Amino acid sequence: HAMVFVCIVLTMATSYIILRQAGHIARVLGNTGINVMSRLMGLALAAIAVQFMLAGLTEALPGLKGGV
Fold first, then answer.
1. Is the pTM of this model over 0.70?
2. Fewer CB within 10 Å of terminal CB in the chain, N or C?
3. Residue 63: how many CB atoms within 10 A of its CB?
4. Model pLDDT for residues 47-66, shown as the tens digit of each residue
5. How far apart are CA 27 and CA 34, in angstroms?
6. Which residues of 5-43 are buried (b: 16+ CB within 10 A; e: fewer)?
């Protein structure tokens, strides 16, 4: 349980720091950098969504695994 708690605290701290520095990060990246990052994050989110869907389908329909 301690490791989960530590991970949660680290995630909270990282999120706080990033959100606190959002204005500075936006100035550094500029409009083009923000657009690029938005598209990359969207691509990553789509990849995660596809992985979840495939995992759910193979769980629901075991015949899709291709094994014997």
1. no
2. C
3. 7
4. 999 999 999 999 888 887 77
5. 9
6. eeeeeeeeeeeeeeeeeeeeeeeeeeeeeeeeeeeeeee
